[in-house]
Amino acid sequence: MPDAPYAVAAVLVSAAVTWALRALPFAALTPLRNSAIVQYLSTRMPAGVMLILLAYCLRDLPLTHASALAPLTALTATVGLHLWRRNALLSILGGTAVHVILTSTVFAH
Questions:
Q1: Rounded CA gap, 70 and 100, in Å?
Q2: Please, what sign has the CA dihedral across residues 6, 8, 14, 16?
């Protein structure tokens, strides 16, 4: 069993490394907050990420099978909710709920 000073030193080093790793992103991003590039990315990235997720989720969807109706209906609900309310959280939660309900009930195998 390690002696007490060794254990205390190990805990202090671990705490310091943990604190530094958690503080580092905030320290690095502080000078970038007023950057034009970061502001541009903050407006464009959400749509880009959603587009990538859409392509990833629908890339292997067999359009000739009835099972494709659940994700396509959920996609329609997501787009409809977003066009109606312009709220990303509501759109994502609503589309997810539609997909889960359809795959759990109507299209359950």
A1: 9
A2: negative
List helix spans (H) across the chain.
4-29, 36-58, 69-85, 88-101
For residue 10, which phi and psi values (nearest 5 degrees)? -65, -40
d(CA 101, CA 106): 8
Per-residue tokens: 84? 């109606």
Asked whether 65 and 49 are in contact (CB, 8 A), the reply is no
Rounded Cα distance, 103 and 73, in Å: 11
What local confidence, expressed as pLDDT, does residue 44 receive? 87
Averaged over 75-101, what is the pLDDT?
A: 93
Supply φ then ψ for residue 6, to 5 degrees.
-65, -45
The string of pLDDT tens digits covering residues 38-85 is: 888 888 888 888 889 889 988 999 988 888 999 999 999 999 999 999
Cα 60 from Cα 82, distance rounded (Å): 24
**Structure pTM?**
0.61
Q: Tokens 């069993």 correspond to what residue?
A: 1
